Amino acid sequence: QVRNLGATATGISQIEYLNDAAWKKLFSDPVQAAAITSQEMLTISSAHIPMMGESIKYLSDSVFGVFKFTFIAGPTNLKSQIASITPEQIKVLSPAQIAIIASLNHGLTIASLDVYSFGALNPAQVGILTGINVDSITAAQLAALSAESLAALKPDAIASLTSTQKSSLTTAQHNACGC
Questions:
Q1: Burial (CB count within 10 angstroms: exposed 0-12, middle 13-18, buried 19+), residue 112
Q2: Which residue from 91, 132, 88, 96 is spatially nearest to 111, judged by alpha carbons?
Q3: How confident is the model at residue 3 (pLDDT cuts 50, 70, 90)?
Q4: I need a surface site. Which of 23, 132, 153, 171 has the fewest CB within 10 A?
Q5: How far is CA 95 from CA 100, 121, 132, in A?
Q6: Are the beta carbons of 47 and 76 closer than 8 angstroms?
Q7: What is the model's pTM?
Q8: What is the pLDDT of residues 12-50, one digit of tens each?
């Protein structure tokens, strides 16, 4: 059904042309959300990512693997799909889904999350981050993590922290990560 939405005579999905009300209705059904394909994800506007709500967690691993991390200029695409993921959506993603996002663009994509979404990462999600992932984030993103989340950083991630990143942390955060 999702694949037939807005399909042309050739059967090519045009899901990106759904209006906002139809988009929200689509993602109110976990079965429909899970039916989104990688090919369809490539056509979806960054403006539609927040409209997925918590149903974002039903997307397949292959769909997460094609999320766009580059910024696209245009009237509705003012930021990347990754940068459009909300803090509320981050909270429902599994560590495995975060790992897929973090692995994109040679491990640099996790830095595309805004400071609030990055700060919403929980300890289990932070525990999958590598040194490469952490090296790419800003000091503000690092400081947005809770002390509990920072405590979950792996030794290689802690070793990759820069002095600028470390200087942004509170005493409680320093104590939590041992950095």
A1: buried
A2: 132
A3: very low
A4: 171
A5: 9, 9, 17
A6: yes
A7: 0.87
A8: 567 777 888 888 888 889 998 998 988 888 888 888 899
